[in-house]
Amino acid sequence: MKDSTKGFLLLSCAAILWGAIGPISKYIFTTGITPLETAFWRGTIAGVCYLIHFARARSQKTVSARGTATEFANQIHPYSIYRPHIFGIVVFGVFGVALLEGSYVFAVEEGGAALASILLYSAPIWVNLYSRFVLKESVTMRQWTALGFTTIGILGVSILGGINAFSTKAIAFGLCSGLSYAAFYVAGKIFFTRSNPVSVYVLAFPVASLALLPVIYLHSNLSPLDVILKLSHLELLPLLALLSVGVFSTYIPYICHGAGLKIISAGKASIIASLEPVIAVCLAQFFWAESFSTIGYFFIGLVLLGISM
């Protein structure tokens, strides 16, 4: 299989699994779990998965066959964390992971799962600009055109989509999630050159969960102990929903996403991952009867056109 095909499949898999976050989160809200608590448990469950993955990989004591001569000489494990990147990963955990998880679930609460997922994909705008002017990656005219269609589609569906009454909060939280989501592509191109994605996430996700705890207290007056005790009152289905968001819509797709970023440029990857809102819109319409106006679907079509280019 060609590397480009492999990268496309990995990123597409990530997008499909991410697409379920909004619809599942909306169900979780109905059980009494707040958006911030949902974000906390999503990151915490994923963080535990990364910790187990990291610990098992470290215990194997193997060195990647693709390591450099220096790495072999120093016996650097492929799952070690590159120390000069530690501070950057911590910052990424707060302003990338925590901000994304928190703002996205609020966007779902304020504007619905479908609109939130569309707004999340303002990310390619920021990613392509950063790729071009900071990472100095080449951005082709075709990519700029695809980005243009995606941007117009996102703006159109946000303002004229007709899914809900126009909500400034929903737009603000959605765009914030898009900006923080862009950090994953940028951080990936920086950190994944020296560290395995799991090594980055095993630090970033616990940092994100810790960063969310004081926000939960300020917003809902819930202590960390209160947050944990609330789980004991949940029935099996809400618990399974939280588990699925953490494992199947966070841990697994980020593994795929990290592997795909090693193959495909940040700009192209961000456009491929725009499959996510398509999945989210379909699920939201099926489970929650969230539907757009005719012109709203036209703008979704522009997003799809941008993805396919």
Distance between the termini: 21 Å
Percentage of residues in DSSP E strands: under 5%
Please report the total strand number as a whole number.
0
Unreliable runs? 68-76
**Multimeric organization:** single chain
**N-to-C SSE string, H for helix and E for strand:** HHHHHHHHHHHHHHH
Task: Give the number of helices.
Answer: 15
Cα-based radius of gyration, to the nearest Å: 19 Å
Q: Largest beta sheet, briefly?
A: none
Mean pLDDT: 82
Classify the secondary structure makeup into a structural class: mainly alpha
Percentage of residues in helical conformation? over 70%
How many independent structural domains? 1
Overall geometry comes to: globular
Verbal overview:
It is a single chain. With 309 residues, the protein is an all-alpha fold. The chain has one domain. 77% of the residues lie in helices and 0% in strands. It is globular.
Question: How would you summarize the topology of this molecule?
Answer:
Elements: H1 3-18, H2 21-29, H3 35-59, H4 69-74, H5 86-111, H6 113-120, H7 123-133, H8 141-160, H9 168-191, H10 197-220, H11 224-230, H12 236-261, H13 266-272, H14 275-288, H15 294-308
Helix pairs in contact: 1-12, 1-14, 2-5, 2-6, 2-12, 3-5, 3-10, 3-12, 5-6, 5-9, 5-10, 6-9, 6-14, 7-9, 7-13, 8-15, 9-13
Question: Which terms summarize this structure?
Answer:
309 residues; mainly alpha; 0% strand; globular
Task: Briefly summarize what is shown.
This protein has 15 helices and no strands. By secondary structure, the protein is mainly alpha-helical.
